[in-house]
Structures are given as C-alpha cells and as structure tokens.
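Fresh eyes needed here. Have a critical look at this protein's tokenised backbone.
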Amino acid sequence: QVQLVESGGGLVQAGGSLRLSCAASGRTFSSYAMGWFRQAPGKEREFVAAISWGGGTTYFPDSLKGRFTISRDNAKNTVYLQMNSLKREDTAVYYCAAANRYQNPSNALQYDYWGQGTQVTVSS
C-alpha cells in the first residue's frame, strides 16, 4: 500500500513557475513508476509526466515538453514536477500517481495509487 500526498500548488501569474512535490509513504517507493496527471473543470484527466523507478526514463506529452520536468528522490520518497512558463490553460488540479509497471505511462489505468491532488491556478 502506498499513500501519496501532493503539495506545492497555488496561485501564480502566467509566465511564472511552480514546483509540485508528492511525498509517498512506505519503504517501497523506489519500486514504483510515478506519474503526474491533471484535471481542469469540465475536462477529462490529462497525462502530464511520468518517471521510471530509478529516474532514468521520463515521458511527457509533446504539448508539455520543454516546459515541465519530472524528477524523483528515492531517498526522500518524493517525486517532483517542475513547471515553468506557466499558462492559464495549465490551471487544474494536479495529481500524482504510482504504478507497479511502466508499460504505458500516459494511461491513467496503469496506476495503482493516487494522491488527493493539489490545485494550480495560473492568472493572466
């Protein structure tokens, strides 16, 4: 069992940056691939980023490459999402998730555990 708690969300102006953190409980964090998803009001949940167990492989949708980065610190049981050059359309609740496998990291169904989410609001 893994419990995930996101933090770092808030209100930021367009063009600004935020770093989200996701702290995981348990001693097996390093055995999980981790992902970030987001959901804006009235929209479906959208894949944002994923990282493999050791952090050697990351994956992003083309629309976010170059602005978002994902990293992890297995010693701290934490995964991070660095978001730069934020736009109003990045406004959403951001969720982190943990998966036992890394076969299709953009598919939300691959993930076994989810956090409660943290709100990110980008103002113009």
About this structure: The CA atoms of residues 44 and 61 lie 15 Å apart.
